[in-house]
Amino acid sequence: MLIPPFHGGIWLAGDGPANNSNHRRGVFAIDGHIYSPERFAIDWVKVGSNGDSRHDGTAKNENWWGWGEPVLAVAEGDITEVVDEFPDNTPSVLPPVTLDNIAGNHLILRIAKNRFVTYAHLQRGSIKVRQGDHVHPGDVLALLGNSGNTTGAHLHLQVTDRNSVLQSEGVPFVFPAFTYLGPGSVYPEKQLSVPWVKSIPPGNGVVKFEQVKH
Questions:
Q1: How large a percentage of the chain has pLDDT more than 70?
Q2: pLDDT by residue (tens digit) across 6-22?
Q3: Considering its fold, how many domains does the chain have in total?
Q4: Which of 4, 5, 18, 3 is nearest to 184 (CA)?
Q5: Strands (E), the chain
Q6: Structural domain for 134, as ranges
Q7: The pTM is what?
Q8: Within a domain: residue 74?
Q9: How far is CA 190 from CA 12, 183, 184, 187, in A?
């Protein structure tokens, strides 16, 4: 069970667990093997007070509510990989994507035997930990950015069985509690307020996390 990766707020679980999710259907062929590391991955997009992911235009990263949001350790563990070298993209402009830059600036946190959490698309220069560091739940690891295979500021979060962004298999995870506000396709015009416990958010659902206490 993981704590939320943010200090509370309202978030869209973009391409989260669902049979038609791009993450669930994505596979990678590397060195003669097939991997599905993103099977349960979520692209976390912050939703602001206007009910949208952006404000005052779309041209700048600063227009995205999630840009610069502190990203937290979801469990106690050890940092096993840190990459902080890629520029943040201009919104809506996707650079050439390769296996090397697909995750952009990212880090991997080992939380148990054969369990690793990848945080991808982090803001360049914002990562506050180094390989080998031991962290605790709620520690700030980096800031949410727009680097790698992304056209808008968000956090790609996945849990896998190996210490690799791509050469691994995705595994499910749950959060202790959150409030489900309904499908992103109808939010905020139509809203629910349903408490969920020990669950993973549904694909493209809007959820509210309470303030993280640690």
A1: 99
A2: 999 999 999 999 988 99
A3: 1
A4: 18
A5: 9-14, 28-30, 33-35, 42-47, 70-72, 77-83, 105-112, 115-122, 134-135, 140-143, 155-160, 175-183, 194-199, 205-209
A6: 9-209
A7: 0.96
A8: yes
A9: 15, 9, 9, 5
